[in-house]
Structures are given as C-alpha cells and as structure tokens.
Automatic annotation (TrEMBL):
InterPro entries: DUF4336, RibonucZ/Hydroxyglut_hydro. This is Metallo-beta-lactamase domain-containing protein. It comes from Arthrobotrys oligospora (strain ATCC 24927 / CBS 115.81 / DSM 1491) (Nematode-trapping fungus). Signal peptide: none annotated.
C-alpha cells in the first residue's frame, strides 16, 4: 500500500529543505487514490526550548532520521493533524517514544477500528474540549493551535508565531505539487485527473477551492467552521506550509482571506446578530 502512496523508494524522492532557521520540510510524492498528484509534506519545527514538533510525519527514512538528529534529535511532539494524515505516526512514536502525540479524538477512534498501531494520543481534541484543552508551555510559547471540529477531515492547524507561518494539512491546497514530485520522473502538472485536481485545488486564482470549502469541507457544520476561520483570520502569518502542493512563501494571509471570504463574512454577520 505504501508504495502506491509514496513510491517504492522514499529515500530517493524526498526533498528535505530548511525553510527558516526553525522550520524544515520533508516533501514527498503522494498519489491520492493512485491518480491525483497531491504530494505530501511533513513539517519539522524547532521549539524555543530546543525540542521538535513534527507535523504530519512522512516516512521515517534514514535521511529524515539524520535530519532530526542534526536538529537536536529531541522530538517533543508529533501532530497527526486530521483523520487522513496519520499513517506514519506509529514508526515515529516507536523511534521517539517520549514524544507526545496531538490529534483529533475521532482519528484515534478511527485508528482503533482499523487496527492500526495503538499509539495513545496525549492531547486528544474534540468538540467538547477544543477551547479548554491545555497544552504545555513549551508548545504554546511558539504555537497557536485551532481545531476545526466542523471540517470534514477534523483539521488541526498551527501558527508558528516566531516566523508567522501557518502550518496545515487539508485546510488549503496549493497545487500543482512541483516540489513534492521534483525528484521523480513524474510531471506534477500533466494528466487528465491532475488537471481536474489542479482546477479544484489551486490557491492562485478562481473560486473553485473557495466553493469546495463552502459546499464541501464545511457542509456538516458551517457555523462552527466559520468561527474557526475567524480565529485564523486573527493570526499573523505571511507564509503557508500546506501538506498538499507548494509552500506559499509570501502573501499567505491574503490567500487565506480570499479562499475563506464567504466564511469570514458569515462569521461577521453572525457576530453582529449576537450583539
């Protein structure tokens, strides 16, 4: 199964890049349902305390493990950001057993039903505790966290405060995934299904992704989704690191506001009604 997702040799195809002094990305080829060239990405952030936060871990190859060692070697937190981004948390937890795991409660339940490795979630987010769950100070010193319990994938998004970077999984796509396929012989822009997915999930122009967010991603709980959008709108960020597609190095806040414009307007309208 993993070879269909990430290719037969992730050691040769992963692109490891230092984005900032504190942030390193591991970008890999990833095919959704074997057709859609979404790409995948882990984001490793060094905390002010010296520990590492690994968001949406990719395959733990020797090269990635060496990168972790070069960054100090202390993985303090593993973030499984939604119900789709979790397949590698078992090997990472086994390699770094003192790391604490953050993820949605519904993901833990899904993993139990599927028979995945039993990786306990130290900080398990759900609708009831999303505003009361207290994370350790070494994490909150550098990060803000918003749990989108009304997103179809139950998203956890992070703001790395020192660099003004939004780190997210399936909240915003930025296709095509050129960096993630750059070490393969696959063209990230070609193919019928690729062009369809690029049309739906580009962040650069048009309203296709905006419509997907409104009619698809938020359809099961739009009011709560709107409130989460309002929270992120209050964050200060310029860069967006998505799991799928190229990093948005600058102009990320404007991109976010354009894609979530309908949700932000609805949140404002609701706020006016309750005054």
């Amino acid at each position: 199964m993993s070879s269909k997702l990430w290719g037969t040799d992730p050691s040769k195809t992963a692109v490891i890049r230092q984005v900032t002094d504190a942030i390193t990305t591991v970008s890999v080829p990833f095919l959704r349902i074997g057709l859609l060239k979404f790409g995948g990405r882990a984001t490793i952030t060094k905390l002010s305390s010296g520990g590492l936060v690994v968001f949406s871990p990719t395959v733990l190859t020797d090269e990635v493990a060496s990168t972790v060692t070069s960054l100090g070697g202390q993985v303090s937190y593993i973030v499984a950001p939604d119900i789709e981004h979790h397949l590698n948390i078992g090997p990472w937890k086994a390699a770094y057993p003192t790391a604490r795991v953050i993820g949605p409660t519904v993901l833990y339940q899904k993993r139990q039903k599927q028979g995945n490795e039993d990786v306990p979630f130290d900080f398990s987010y759900n609708s009831e505790n999303k505003n009361s769950l207290v994370l350790p100070e070494d994490f909150t010193r550098d990060f803000e966290l918003e749990y989108w319990d009304n997103h179809m994938s139950h998203e956890i998004a992070l703001l790395h405060k020192p660099s003004g970077t939004l780190i997210e999984a399936d909240l915003i796509f930025n296709l095509p995934s050129k960096e993630q396929f750059s070490k393969t012989d696959i063209d990230a822009t070609k193919g019928f299904w690729t062009k369809v997915s690029m049309h739906l999930f580009t962040s650069l122009a048009g309203k296709s992704q905006q419509r997907f967010l409104w009619y698809g991603a938020s359809s099961k709980g739009r009011a709560g989704f709107n409130r989460s959008a309002k929270v992120l709108d209050g964050w200060e960020f310029d860069r967006i690191i998505p799991c799928h597609g190229d990093v948005i190095e600058t102009g990320g806040k404007a991109t976010f506001r354009r894609l979530f414009a309908w949700h932000l307007a609805a949140a404002e309208a609701e706020a006016r009604k309750t005054k």
